Amino acid sequence: MPDFVQLWVYLSTAPLFGLTATLVVYVVAAALYDRVDRAPWANPVLWSVVVLGAMLVLTATPYPTYFAGAQFVHVLLGPAVVALAWPLWQRRAEVSKRGVALLVAALVGGTVAGGSAVLLAWLFDLPAEVLRSLASKSVTAPVAMGIAERIGGVPALAAVFAVLTGLVGALSAKYLFNGLGIDSWAVRGFALGTASHGIGAARALQVHDDAGAYAGIALGLQVLLASLMIPLLFRWLG
Predict the structure, then answer these.
(1) Region of residue 61 (left: phi > 0; alpha: psi -120 to 50; beta: else)
(2) pLDDT for 79-119, tens place per residue?
(3) pLDDT given at position 4
(4) Which of 36, 55, 189, 218 makes a 20 to 30 Å CA pair with 170?
């Protein structure tokens, strides 16, 4: 046991500890995800967060130590989001015909997603910092953090809300769409990308190409609209 403890102390302080742990956990979670026919509850992002979080807590490993290695995966977030543009490019003619309708749907959907969260926070008399951090919950995490910082929210809290929103959408969307009788992959994907940003878009892309393409459109529109409108709205409200 002492030898094992010493080995763990050494490994946990190594620069590549976070990277190795993240990759191993995600690969195992992804393999299990495939074995259960990609059931929503087996989402590999969800279980990777749970396992890695539990590991850090149980071993008392500081988050900065973990992130020193995991940041190499973090850097790939930008290229991964940009890669969502490929299925969109393949359907550019179809999308251009629906441009106005998609813009209006994104505006309404984003307003409802963020506005409902802010309204509930206000009704429950939550602190102003929490309320402002919730405003960008349906925008991908890096952008949500930037928006929260500009409007007086807490960037770290905004990132948590964004990740939780994405996971909830990825886990529940299939059952919600089935219950509402929504069969169109384009509608499913756009709704998921609007409400659950990158995590939802990744789930949509796994399910169907059309869903992934429209989720990517919704993700991009939400980033653009939220970055412009949320700061202006909070400045106007004072």
Answers:
(1) beta
(2) 766 776 677 777 777 777 887 888 898 889 888 888 888 89
(3) 45
(4) 55
Q: How far apart are the first and last CA of the chain?
A: 59
Residue 181 exposed, middle or buried by CB count within 10 Å (0-12, 13-18, 19+) = exposed
User: pTM higher than 0.85, yes or no?
Assistant: no
3-state secondary structure the chain: CHHHHHHHHHHHCCCCHHHHHHHHHHHHHHHHHHHCCCCHHHCHHHHHHHHHHHHHHHCCCCHHHHHHHHHHHHCCHHHHHHHCHHHHHHCHHHHHHCHHHHHHHHHHHHHHHHHHHHHHHHHCCCCHHHHHHHCCCCCCHHHHHHHHHHHCCCHHHHHHHHHHHHHHHHHHHHHHHHHHCCCCHHHHHHHHHHHHHHHHHHHHHHHCHHHHHHHHHHHHHHHHHHHHHHHHHHHHHC
- The one-letter amino acid code at 66 reads Y
